[in-house]
Design goal:
alpha+beta, 4-stranded antiparallel beta sheet, 5-stranded antiparallel beta sheet, binds FE2/S2 (inorganic) cluster, Rieske Iron-sulfur Protein
């Protein structure tokens, strides 16, 4: 609103906002927005883009109801644990064909991907898997079993307390 000469402002008229103040407010708002977005971006940086894989060495306890020769697969692990009269042992459930996770069955293991079958000791009974399932290093600490998924042992290696 322009006020011409001789015209006076009423006290009810809104006070004009100088253009310089409007530009200053806009600059201040822009700076605050940029600072807010930069802070938000910096807070996101410390998060890892790739989650670490679980440790290959883990502890577990066999269920008290586990029968001799029955497989126990700890949740989230590609290992089948067994206990029989000769000791405790672990067999990897990673198929030696293309790496699918095999399922324990009553007479061994079967692979859901291409149909390979393995005996209870991990030997191949039907292809296309080229070789037996790996036996893994196991150690006992009381009731706790420590399994190292990266350390293979000769087939038939069992540990006793
Ligand atoms: S991945 Fe197991 S049979 Fe192919």
């Amino acid at each position: 609103m322009t006020v011409s000469a001789g015209q006076s402002l009423s006290r009810l008229d809104p006070e004009p906002i100088p253009r310089r103040d409007v530009l200053g407010l806009f600059a201040l708002w822009s700076m605050a927005s940029a600072l807010l977005f930069a802070t938000g971006g910096m807070l996101r940086l410390p998060k890892a883009a790739v989650l670490p894989s679980p440790a290959k060495r883990f502890r577990t306890v066999l269920p008290a109801t586990l029968q001799p020769g029955e497989a126990f697969v700890p949740p989230g692990r590609a290992v089948a644990l067994f206990r029989d009269a000769e000791g405790t042992y672990a067999i990897s459930t990673v198929c030696t064909h293309l790496g699918c996770i095999v399922r324990p069955t009553a007479d061994g293991f079967e692979c859901p991907c291409h149909g390979s079958r393995f005996a209870r000791d991990g030997d191949v009974t039907r292809g296309p898997a080229p070789r037996a399932l790996s036996w893994l290093a196991v150690s006992l600490r009381g009731d706790t079993i420590v399994v190292d998924e990266e350390a293979t042992v000769p087939a038939g290696t069992k540990v006793t307390a």
